[in-house]
Design brief:
Largest sheet: 5 strands, antiparallel
Number of helices: 1
Order of helices and strands: HEEEEEEEEEEEEE
Number of domains: 1
CATH architecture: Sandwich
Radius of gyration: 21 Å
Structural class: mainly beta
CATH class: Mainly Beta
Length: 163
């Protein structure tokens, strides 16, 4: 009896292992580019920039801001100008206020020691890009402090939503 159970277990183990291997090899459609802020002092004149390519205009995408800061950052939020430039078009800039935490609950996001990373959804719901091609983005800080201290990096993450 024991050898029959062992044989059935081995018979099931091979297909399960194969399925796990094949599913782990599928491509994840994610773009992320983060720009380090020199000396953790974000000058208003410093703009984080990047490019990404959209080839599938039928799928929806989520757009996230990714920001890393130290525990010494003195505000609960950050004001940013975030620009997006579609292929062959001019840049569209939006002023956004990103909450990073509050006094009652502390910092949002994930933290390790005194470093915190927050990922904020910018487009509310997944959206489709109207045309394929090379898109450019820019992110600059518009806070009163210049330089804005204790910001380590900032970037954009684009995730293709699964159907």
């Amino acid at each position: 009896m024991r050898s029959i159970i062992k044989h059935k277990f081995q018979f099931l183990l091979l297909p399960v292992a194969y399925c796990l291997f094949v599913s782990s090899c599928t491509q994840i459609d994610i773009f992320e580019k983060n720009t380090a802020i020199p000396k953790y002092e974000w000058q208003q004149s410093f703009t984080a920039k990047g490019d990404f390519v959209i080839s599938d205009t039928t799928s929806a995408y989520s757009i996230y801001l990714v920001l890393r800061h130290t525990d010494a950052y003195k505000y609960n939020n950050i004001w940013l100008n975030i620009g997006l430039q579609p292929p062959g078009d001019s840049i569209h800039i939006q002023k956004v206020n990103i909450a990073l935490g509050d006094d009652a609950n502390g910092w949002e996001g994930t933290g390790m020691n005194d470093i915190w990373e927050v990922r904020k959804l910018l487009n509310g719901a997944p959206r489709r890009f109207k045309q394929p091609g090379n898109y450019s983005f820019s992110i600059s800080q518009i806070m009163r402090d210049n330089p804005l201290r204790h910001i380590m990096s900032v970037g954009l993450r684009i995730e293709k939503q699964k159907d």
